[in-house]
Amino acid sequence: MGGDDGGRGGDGCGISPELASQTEAEAAAQPLAPSCLSVSGAQLRDAPILLFVFFHKALRAELAELRRLAAAESGCRGGSNNGNLVVEIHRRFEFLKLFYKYHCAAEDEVIFLALDVHIKNVAHTYSLEHKSIDDLFSSIFHCLDVLMEGDANTAKPFQELVLLISTIQTTICHHMLKEEEQVFPLLMKQFSPQEQASLVWQFMCSVPVLLLEDFLPWMTSFLSPEEQVNVVNCIKEVVPEENLLEEVVISWLGNNNQPFGSPTRIGEEAQSVGPANLKDALKVYSSKSFSTEIRQWKEVFGLKTNVGQNPVDGLHLWHGAIRKDLKGILEELYQIRSSDSFSTLASAIVQLKFLADVLIFYSNALDKIFYPLLDLLSDGCLSPSYKRFPDESQIEGLQRLLHYNAKNGIPLSKFVEKLCWELESFVMGIGDHLVFQEMEVFPLISAKCSHELQKWLLYMSLLMMPLGLLKCVITWFLAHLSEEESKSILKSIKQEDSLVNMSFASLLHEWVRIGYSGKTSVEKFRKDLQEMFKSRSSFHSDQIEEDGGSFFSPSDAKPCKRSNPGLMKPIPGNKATHSVNDSSSSGSHTSEKYGTSYSSGINLHIFFPGTLKIFHPVPNFPDGMGDASSILNLEPRPVDLIFFFHKALKKDLEFLVFGSAKLAENTGYLADFHRRFRLIRFLYQIHSDAEDEIAFPALEAKGKGQNISHSYTIDHKLEVEHFNKLSFILDEMSKLHISVSGVHLDKMDQRMLKYHQLCMKLHDMCQSMQKILCDHVDHEEIELWPLFRECFSNEEQEKIIGSILGRMRAEILQEIIPWLMASLTPKEQHAMMSLWRKATKNTMFEEWLGEWWDGMNQYDIAKVVEESKMPQPWLADPLEVVSRYLSKEDTSEEVSEKSDEFLQNDSVSANIMLPGNHAVDNKEKLLNEDHDNHQCSECKKPYSENEKKRSNEVADVTNQVNKPGQLLQDNQQFSHQEHLLSMSQDDLEAAIRRVSRDSSLDPQKKSHIIQNLLMSRWIVRQQKSHSEVAVLGSGKEIPGQCPSYRDPLKLTFGCKHYKRNCKLVAACCNQLYACRLCHDDVTDHSMDRKKTTKMMCMRCLVIQPVGPTCSTASCDNLSMAKYYCRICKFFDDEREIYHCPYCNLCRVGKGLGIDYFHCMNCNACMSRSLAVHICREKCLEDNCPICHEFIFTSSSPVKALPCGHLMHSACFQDYTCTHYTCPICSKSLGDMQVYFGMLDALLAEEKIPDEYSTQTQMILCNDCEKRGTAAFHWLYHKCPYCGSYNTRVI
Questions:
Q1: In the prediction, which pLDDT does 1053 show?
Q2: What domains are there in the chain, each with its CATH number?
């Protein structure tokens, strides 16, 4: 993907060579251009649909040229006002906007509808992107209007214009690249060349003739000669086999007159005002320049009226045909309403649609041609009653019914009643307008315009119709005329006239001749028209019969429809002599006659875009949701985390635009801006990867979301390229900024000039990036994320979000959490943390968050509460509770009262831990037995402040001894200890009985107290031992204050477990050990490494606060190890370690998202090769079934069994020497077919005694869990279902 000259079409797009030469920085500042697209290998003759790609090339080239013109004026003129250039750019953008509107409308109403029949959920995304371009054109015209006002200083407006042009250029090129990568390859795959030609022809027949005459030569002007020949040959294949029609279209392609949009025409004044030079589309569609043209027509044609019938009088016949058909349709609807027979309703709807199209273009001709002329002839005093005919509200009201969808479930009888009422009002309004034209407008034209000017007006009115509609209108109009009236029209067209194009006049003459021949009656025309509209109609006559009086649209048949499905697959043919809308053989006889079929939807796109929302609404999302804001107002759900990220991303994109504008004035701001940009780029890459690899595949797996996300994946790829280009410019700016201080003054000026140019390009690209990314996330929120709410339950959403979070390392979370919080409101912050906690409820994430992030207390909301299997912890000293029950003076009631007071206090952690290993382990390899080296990941937060806090906490604990009342408490504690050591076994049994008889205690509390009673003497001995050690340690030397070596020969510091340059001071016994494991090997208790606050450097032997380096001056910041975790107080100088924020432990490996991920349900770090695994809730928080060591903190590798249970790898090897079933669930530990085959052979040779040979036994298979019968045997019983011998007799 991408191109070599950034949006100018690449090689072969007709761009002059001088525009293609750029520096790397200039190329980086331009939008992407296609080079090796998926469609590049196809030839136009084999894939006519690629004609749209040639239109893309023309768009790219024109936008690049307009940007070049504006940039040159902005940079070279120093703010002077060049009015001619501004007018030139304005006129070219008017033309470009008009072309782009028709191009988008053709894709939406022709191409995308056809594709949606074959492949669902692709086209709607691109239709959304079409709608997001209009605002950019409006901004450009506003800026051009400011420049045209003629202010003295136009430097800033020109700079703003360049930015706007660059933004629209990047946005449109980005959109076209996506289409060329996804849409057009699908079209070439799904449609034959003949069907593609039919689609192209339908587009050409839906564009007004006046515009098509300009669009085609404008497009070919940007192509190479070879490409122009290919386009001409393609058009010949696309146009139906009608000689005159081919001649007309080819004449447009070969028009020697430069089209309005071409560079050579811009700025030149027309040398003559003859009709041959007055066909520019913009001069008709733009009211600003039309008054000048009218004055020229007035001078050329004159106002004298010739003797004889006026050509404009023919419009009376036109009005008569309109009145007659509208009246006939209304009468037909009255009959349907009175008879409740709906068999002819579809025919009436089609006729109304056709007449609505006719009236739209007639109204446009009056508005753009007739009324401006009359206004000029009346010296600007035209009556206000000359208004649009018909007005927009009348058309929208009618179209709302004509394109009615059955989702409201209105019965046909009520629909017909409503249609009759609407049509009555419409006919009345149209009648008034027609009378006004006949009484006021036509007489004025007849009186003041010559015959030549009247003919020209009528001719231009015809040119404003699309080619397909024009042919249908001729047939329809002639069917209403008498023979004499038809001859008169035929004679008028046959007359040679310099005012009209003769090839087009010949085509009109032929079409009128065919209509005059009488082969088409009004009834036959209506039948043919119905066949042509059939596939686009909201409902059909055969459908009405099936529905039995209720209104149903084909678009409701499948819930995942995202666009109008009416367009059916066209019938193949040798040439495109048929319309793609002909969906059945019953309509094939009209395909040749109406090969110039048009799309009514394109006309509505252009003239009444608001009406499209009625029958092309935003996809129906649950609860009526249509955007992100409405979703966020609902109850928070896990997928809403995506919206929070989008909001933060949009805020930072605004920062990039604002910050890039400051760089030119404040060069010292560059380093901060570059740092912030790298953060945004890094977080966006994580977000897009998570969507592409987790969220989107999950949605695609659902039937409703199939194919819907591929467009957004392409977005991610193209946006990464934009980020890379921005990064390249920032690197260039950084090099210039660094080297400026060391150069001479003259070179400094040159470098500063280049620096300012790069600043402008950076600001340009940041603004374009903001537009692209904001549109991208907005479209995701409109189209994709509501589907997640609809298709996934809360549990499934939590699993998806958990999978995304499980790939994020601790370092990433340390960046992303504060970044998100800074962009959210307090309510959103609490909602986000609540959702995050729910997704990680089975993990240690909450614990890690509290240990790492001081700001967590600001968002301390209700936590996810879960029942614990462990006894409730207690605040008070267990010896104090025990002493109450040992005291013989206390009565049972007194003891109960005291115990209740104590037991009502809840705590987060117990003061007494059962013997066992609950510390962090750094050597664990979960579910992966590989011993590869992994990249080290370090905590990024500064350690000095945290170490100070740790030291202060230790000091606070020490100072508490001197508080008042402490001495009395110590004396009481000493008395309790002495009593516990001296009590007899009888005293202990008596205390246990007192606890058992205490009715105020629940069973759980009783168990806890009895356990403490049984362990009380051991606890006292441990406390006394620790006290003695603390007293000994208060001297100058602590036991173990000497270095230890991992390799004594090489004098490598460490121990047999780890390589490191420090020892740890165990908080439990105040002794020095190289590691926790060394401590546990020689003591009868476990070391809690997280409570470690001091360490000893093994080089200087100085005891100091724990940290990554030695704090003494003699060691010169000696590193204690390559990896240091401030949470676990863990050091390692050999292996690659990462801290998992969900285990809150250090693990061996490169990190989450690299070679491991964390399963939130299992609460385990697993190899990425185990992405699909049997998931068991908190499976690691259990003991090994063989050695009974706690697996979560075990230092030994762990083996995952096929059933989902776990055991140590070493235990597995020993266990499987004699067993093949899981010790927990008894399922087989692997594929045992070989072993079972051996048992089959053994039993076949074994002879069963006769008295047992006929007996059977009921068995239960441990593998398939089915009950069955098996032949009697004293040891082996085979499952009749799965063939397993892993069974038991029941």
A1: 93
A2: 17-25+37-275 (1.20.120), 310-615 (no CATH), 623-805 (1.20.120.520), 1231-1290 (2.20.28.10)
